[in-house]
Amino acid sequence: MASAAGRGEAEQSGTPTVAFRRLRLGILISGRGSNMQAIVANIEAGKLAADVALVVCNHRDAPGLAWAREKGLPALLLERGDYPTREAHDDAIARALSDAGVDLVVLAGYDRILGARLLEAFRGRIVNIHPSLLPAFAGSLHAQADALEYGVKISGCTVHFVTEGEVDGGPIILQAAVPVMEDDTPERLSARILEQEHVIYSRAIQLYAEGRLRLEGRRVRIVEGS
Ligand code: GRF
Is there a domain that residue 145 lies in? Predict the structure, then answer.
Protein backbone atom coordinates (compact mmCIF):
# COMPACT_ATOMS: atom_id res chain seq x y z
CA MET A 1 0.00 0.00 0.00
CA ALA A 2 2.90 2.28 0.68
CA SER A 3 5.02 2.25 -2.41
CA ALA A 4 4.82 3.87 -5.82
CA ALA A 5 3.55 1.14 -8.09
CA GLY A 6 5.31 2.58 -11.05
CA ARG A 7 8.77 3.09 -9.61
CA GLY A 8 11.54 1.46 -11.59
CA GLU A 9 15.21 1.79 -12.26
CA ALA A 10 16.43 3.32 -15.51
CA GLU A 11 19.84 4.18 -16.77
CA GLN A 12 20.78 6.99 -19.13
CA SER A 13 24.32 7.42 -20.48
CA GLY A 14 25.73 5.42 -17.61
CA THR A 15 24.09 7.60 -14.96
CA PRO A 16 21.61 5.69 -12.82
CA THR A 17 18.33 7.54 -12.50
CA VAL A 18 15.01 6.60 -10.99
CA ALA A 19 12.18 6.60 -13.49
CA PHE A 20 8.52 6.70 -12.51
CA ARG A 21 6.33 4.66 -14.77
CA ARG A 22 2.93 6.28 -14.92
CA LEU A 23 0.35 4.60 -12.76
CA ARG A 24 -2.10 2.43 -14.70
CA LEU A 25 -5.65 2.90 -13.47
CA GLY A 26 -8.52 0.46 -13.76
CA ILE A 27 -11.72 2.44 -13.17
CA LEU A 28 -14.91 0.60 -12.20
CA ILE A 29 -18.16 2.42 -12.82
CA SER A 30 -21.88 1.68 -12.77
CA GLY A 31 -23.56 4.94 -13.72
CA ARG A 32 -22.94 8.59 -14.42
CA GLY A 33 -19.15 8.44 -14.11
CA SER A 34 -18.49 12.05 -13.15
CA ASN A 35 -15.61 11.04 -10.85
CA MET A 36 -14.04 9.11 -13.74
CA GLN A 37 -14.45 12.20 -15.93
CA ALA A 38 -12.79 14.41 -13.33
CA ILE A 39 -9.86 11.96 -13.07
CA VAL A 40 -9.46 11.93 -16.86
CA ALA A 41 -9.60 15.75 -16.93
CA ASN A 42 -6.85 15.92 -14.31
CA ILE A 43 -4.72 13.47 -16.29
CA GLU A 44 -5.20 15.60 -19.39
CA ALA A 45 -4.32 18.73 -17.42
CA GLY A 46 -1.07 17.09 -16.32
CA LYS A 47 -2.13 17.11 -12.66
CA LEU A 48 -2.23 13.34 -12.33
CA ALA A 49 0.67 11.12 -13.42
CA ALA A 50 -1.52 8.22 -14.44
CA ASP A 51 -3.20 6.66 -17.43
CA VAL A 52 -6.54 4.92 -17.72
CA ALA A 53 -5.60 1.35 -18.61
CA LEU A 54 -9.20 0.12 -18.51
CA VAL A 55 -12.72 1.20 -17.63
CA VAL A 56 -15.02 -1.61 -16.51
CA CYS A 57 -18.75 -0.98 -16.34
CA ASN A 58 -21.40 -3.40 -15.11
CA HIS A 59 -24.47 -1.73 -16.67
CA ARG A 60 -24.92 -1.43 -20.41
CA ASP A 61 -27.01 1.77 -20.13
CA ALA A 62 -24.58 3.61 -17.88
CA PRO A 63 -23.89 7.12 -19.21
CA GLY A 64 -20.31 6.75 -17.98
CA LEU A 65 -19.71 3.81 -20.33
CA ALA A 66 -20.94 5.79 -23.33
CA TRP A 67 -18.72 8.71 -22.27
CA ALA A 68 -15.63 6.47 -21.91
CA ARG A 69 -16.19 4.92 -25.33
CA GLU A 70 -16.76 8.31 -26.92
CA LYS A 71 -13.50 9.47 -25.34
CA GLY A 72 -11.68 6.49 -26.84
CA LEU A 73 -10.77 4.96 -23.50
CA PRO A 74 -10.41 1.17 -23.34
CA ALA A 75 -13.78 0.21 -21.88
CA LEU A 76 -15.38 -3.14 -21.15
CA LEU A 77 -18.97 -3.99 -20.33
CA LEU A 78 -19.03 -6.90 -17.88
CA GLU A 79 -22.57 -7.49 -16.64
CA ARG A 80 -23.36 -9.71 -13.69
CA GLY A 81 -26.18 -11.38 -15.64
CA ASP A 82 -23.73 -12.80 -18.18
CA TYR A 83 -22.03 -14.93 -15.52
CA PRO A 84 -23.43 -17.92 -13.63
CA THR A 85 -22.19 -16.75 -10.23
CA ARG A 86 -21.07 -13.62 -8.49
CA GLU A 87 -17.61 -15.20 -8.16
CA ALA A 88 -17.37 -15.85 -11.91
CA HIS A 89 -18.29 -12.20 -12.57
CA ASP A 90 -15.69 -11.03 -10.07
CA ASP A 91 -13.07 -13.32 -11.61
CA ALA A 92 -13.77 -11.92 -15.07
CA ILE A 93 -13.28 -8.38 -13.75
CA ALA A 94 -10.06 -9.34 -11.94
CA ARG A 95 -8.73 -11.01 -15.09
CA ALA A 96 -9.56 -8.03 -17.29
CA LEU A 97 -7.84 -5.67 -14.85
CA SER A 98 -4.76 -7.90 -14.63
CA ASP A 99 -4.60 -8.34 -18.40
CA ALA A 100 -4.67 -4.55 -18.79
CA GLY A 101 -1.70 -4.24 -16.42
CA VAL A 102 -3.67 -2.24 -13.86
CA ASP A 103 -1.71 -0.95 -10.84
CA LEU A 104 -4.57 0.68 -8.95
CA VAL A 105 -8.29 -0.13 -9.07
CA VAL A 106 -10.44 2.99 -8.70
CA LEU A 107 -14.07 2.47 -7.72
CA ALA A 108 -15.99 5.43 -9.08
CA GLY A 109 -19.66 4.92 -8.35
CA TYR A 110 -19.41 1.14 -8.68
CA ASP A 111 -22.57 -0.34 -7.20
CA ARG A 112 -21.47 -3.83 -6.17
CA ILE A 113 -19.50 -5.09 -3.21
CA LEU A 114 -16.24 -6.65 -4.42
CA GLY A 115 -15.81 -10.37 -3.81
CA ALA A 116 -12.93 -11.93 -1.91
CA ARG A 117 -11.03 -13.02 -5.02
CA LEU A 118 -11.01 -9.56 -6.59
CA LEU A 119 -9.98 -8.05 -3.25
CA GLU A 120 -7.21 -10.62 -2.94
CA ALA A 121 -5.93 -10.06 -6.50
CA PHE A 122 -5.54 -6.32 -5.85
CA ARG A 123 -4.92 -6.28 -2.11
CA GLY A 124 -3.94 -2.79 -0.97
CA ARG A 125 -4.44 -1.49 -4.51
CA ILE A 126 -8.15 -0.65 -4.53
CA VAL A 127 -9.59 2.75 -3.61
CA ASN A 128 -13.13 4.05 -3.30
CA ILE A 129 -14.88 7.36 -2.77
CA HIS A 130 -17.90 7.76 -0.51
CA PRO A 131 -20.08 10.87 -0.18
CA SER A 132 -19.86 11.22 3.62
CA LEU A 133 -17.26 11.84 6.27
CA LEU A 134 -16.61 8.21 7.14
CA PRO A 135 -17.24 6.41 9.39
CA ALA A 136 -20.53 8.32 9.35
CA PHE A 137 -23.11 6.87 6.97
CA ALA A 138 -20.89 4.01 5.82
CA GLY A 139 -22.58 1.58 3.47
CA SER A 140 -25.40 3.97 2.61
CA LEU A 141 -26.43 4.39 -1.01
CA HIS A 142 -27.89 7.83 -0.16
CA ALA A 143 -25.40 9.09 2.36
CA GLN A 144 -26.06 12.77 1.55
CA ALA A 145 -29.82 12.48 2.25
CA ASP A 146 -29.05 10.46 5.38
CA ALA A 147 -26.70 13.19 6.59
CA LEU A 148 -29.38 15.85 6.09
CA GLU A 149 -32.04 13.78 7.80
CA TYR A 150 -29.73 13.02 10.70
CA GLY A 151 -29.10 16.73 11.08
CA VAL A 152 -25.33 16.87 10.78
CA LYS A 153 -23.87 20.35 10.32
CA ILE A 154 -20.72 19.22 8.51
CA SER A 155 -20.88 16.68 5.74
CA GLY A 156 -18.31 15.78 3.10
CA CYS A 157 -16.60 12.97 1.27
CA THR A 158 -13.90 10.36 1.88
CA VAL A 159 -11.37 8.52 -0.27
CA HIS A 160 -10.36 5.24 1.35
CA PHE A 161 -8.63 1.96 0.63
CA VAL A 162 -10.98 -0.94 0.08
CA THR A 163 -10.43 -3.86 2.41
CA GLU A 164 -12.32 -7.00 3.25
CA GLY A 165 -14.94 -6.68 5.95
CA GLU A 166 -17.16 -3.73 6.66
CA VAL A 167 -18.35 -1.81 3.57
CA ASP A 168 -16.66 1.62 3.35
CA GLY A 169 -14.55 0.60 6.35
CA GLY A 170 -11.02 0.66 4.90
CA PRO A 171 -8.21 3.05 5.90
CA ILE A 172 -8.98 6.68 5.10
CA ILE A 173 -6.67 8.47 2.64
CA LEU A 174 -8.27 11.91 2.29
CA GLN A 175 -11.45 13.68 3.37
CA ALA A 176 -13.06 16.99 2.49
CA ALA A 177 -15.59 18.74 4.71
CA VAL A 178 -18.72 20.33 3.24
CA PRO A 179 -20.90 22.45 5.57
CA VAL A 180 -24.64 21.82 5.49
CA MET A 181 -26.70 24.94 4.65
CA GLU A 182 -30.01 25.80 6.27
CA ASP A 183 -31.88 25.54 2.98
CA ASP A 184 -30.11 22.39 1.73
CA THR A 185 -31.91 19.67 -0.15
CA PRO A 186 -30.29 16.27 -0.80
CA GLU A 187 -29.66 17.42 -4.38
CA ARG A 188 -27.95 20.68 -3.44
CA LEU A 189 -25.84 19.08 -0.75
CA SER A 190 -24.90 16.22 -3.11
CA ALA A 191 -23.80 18.68 -5.78
CA ARG A 192 -21.49 20.53 -3.39
CA ILE A 193 -20.08 17.25 -2.06
CA LEU A 194 -19.52 16.04 -5.63
CA GLU A 195 -17.41 19.12 -6.40
CA GLN A 196 -15.11 18.11 -3.55
CA GLU A 197 -15.10 14.46 -4.64
CA HIS A 198 -13.75 15.57 -7.99
CA VAL A 199 -10.88 17.34 -6.25
CA ILE A 200 -9.83 14.85 -3.58
CA TYR A 201 -10.08 11.66 -5.65
CA SER A 202 -7.36 12.75 -8.08
CA ARG A 203 -5.30 14.16 -5.22
CA ALA A 204 -5.43 10.81 -3.39
CA ILE A 205 -4.50 8.89 -6.54
CA GLN A 206 -1.57 11.24 -7.14
CA LEU A 207 -0.34 10.66 -3.57
CA TYR A 208 -0.55 6.92 -4.20
CA ALA A 209 1.32 7.33 -7.50
CA GLU A 210 4.09 9.20 -5.71
CA GLY A 211 4.40 6.43 -3.11
CA ARG A 212 3.50 8.85 -0.34
CA LEU A 213 0.87 6.78 1.49
CA ARG A 214 2.16 4.77 4.44
CA LEU A 215 -0.18 2.52 6.35
CA GLU A 216 0.28 2.40 10.12
CA GLY A 217 -2.44 0.31 11.74
CA ARG A 218 -5.52 1.65 10.07
CA ARG A 219 -4.04 5.13 9.80
CA VAL A 220 -2.78 6.29 6.40
CA ARG A 221 0.17 8.62 6.93
CA ILE A 222 1.00 11.01 4.11
CA VAL A 223 4.78 11.24 3.91
CA GLU A 224 6.93 13.86 2.22
CA GLY A 225 7.69 13.26 -1.44
CA SER A 226 11.28 12.37 -2.33
C1 GRF B 1 -20.46 9.53 -5.95
O2 GRF B 1 -21.24 10.33 -5.12
C3 GRF B 1 -19.54 8.65 -5.15
O4 GRF B 1 -19.13 9.24 -3.95
C5 GRF B 1 -20.40 7.44 -4.86
O6 GRF B 1 -21.16 7.26 -6.02
C7 GRF B 1 -21.29 8.50 -6.71
C8 GRF B 1 -20.77 8.27 -8.10
O9 GRF B 1 -20.94 9.39 -8.91
N10 GRF B 1 -19.59 6.30 -4.52
P11 GRF B 1 -20.30 9.40 -10.36
O12 GRF B 1 -20.81 8.16 -11.08
O13 GRF B 1 -18.81 9.38 -10.21
O14 GRF B 1 -20.81 10.65 -10.99
Answer: yes
